[in-house]
Amino acid sequence: MMKGNILVSGGSGYIGSHTCIELINSGYKPIIVDNLSNSDIQSLDRIEEIAGERPEFFEINLCDREALNQIPKSLRIDALIHFAAFKSVNESVADPLMYYHNNLESLVNILRFCTERNIEHLVFSSSCTVYGDAKELPVTEETPLQKASSPYGNTKQISETIILDYLKVHPELNTISLRYFNPAGAHPSAKIGELPRGIPNNLLPYLTQTAVGLRDELKVFGGDYNTKDGSAIRDYIHVSDLAEAHLKAFEFMKSGKMTSNYDLFNLGSGNGYTVLEVIKSYEKVSGEKLPYQIVDRRPGDVEKIWASTEKAEKILGFTPSRGIDDITKSAWEWEKHYRKNIEKSIS
Ligand code: UFG
Fold first, then answer.
1. Ligand 1 pocket check for 301: Cβ under 6 Å
2. How far does the centroid of ligand 1 lie from the alpha carbon of residue 203, in Å?
3. pLDDT-derived band of residue 344, with 50, 70 and 90 as boundaries?
4. If phi over 0 gives left and psi between -120 and 50 gives alpha, with beta otherwise, what is residue 169?
5. Contacts of 116 (CB under 8 A, 6+ apart)
6. Domains of the chain
7. Predicted TM-score (pTM) of this structure
8. pLDDT tens, residue by residue, 185-243
9. Which of 4, 166, 191, 286 could anchor a disulfide with 78, C-beta 3.0 to 4.6 Å?
10. How far is residue 202's CA from residue 193's CA, in Å, rounded to a whole number?
11. What are residue 295's phi and psi, to 5 degrees?
């Protein structure tokens, strides 16, 4: 039985497409809104191949408020998951207005849209970047936020504030912000995964592109941090676990158990791994050596951060089931599959 329509902004992107698969598998109908600025229309084919259903798709730029009228008023929307945003730290430093405009204007339009269409449940993609260089670890939802270190990070902090202010005068709208730690890995089918345009900024795509020979070597940013092996620590969470957490968040809102109309949760694994440990995990699952070199620290990087998962576990009933080896293995399988089968068919 179909449980409800869920509008997924950014649904053809990396986390969005994995979430659409979870939604279909759990009996929901995802409807994608995306302007394809950082994803390909082919991801709809792959969602269909994996989950057996093709999500309805609207090519809309969320900064264009009028364009949202393309979504028929007769369509009942049970919840909205708002993934769509720009997410590169470097790019945001180079072009801050592009980030403030895109990430904030689209959120404003999404909130208005929720009210216009009587949507009661909203899930917002936030980031652990809001914690900055946290003084206490693990980071809990109570950990004080630090000044954002990039315009991108600032858009996430401001977005959370915009939502809070709006909810005060719109008690009928329930919202959960999910603060992702480091999403990584790919669907076990290897048919969808992370596909950054250009040279990857993030560790896993850079690592897997090096593994398939597309890059000469991985540069490990910093070998002199105060950690067990000198490289920086992050909390990597498998994208399929992350996808499941969105469903749990929506179902929690629907259950009526929220004590107010806003809540927020960390989504991480609760475990921190150094960059060198991630490389070791890849070498273990692949049986291959990865060429890498330790270089200077990357400006703006924090030394270590990982999540407290207690709140998400206790309130949402969410615990990630996949570990670091599942992440490196699935990311590597996806990279190989993409280079061998998909890239050639596109170019
Ligand atoms: N790293 C390398 N070499 C690379 C890429 C990354 O050594 O080529 C290291 C980084 O220095 C860091 C770790 O791998 O220690 C993870 O780096 P990512 O770029 O994958 O992720 P970040 O933790 O820097 O960024 C993530 C999210 C951002 C968010 C940020 C907040 O991707 O959206 O956390 O800290 F803003």
1. yes
2. 6
3. low
4. alpha
5. none
6. 4-346 (3.40.50.720)
7. 0.97
8. 999 999 999 999 899 999 999 999 999 999 999 999 999 999 999 999 999 999 999 99
9. 4
10. 13
11. -125, -170
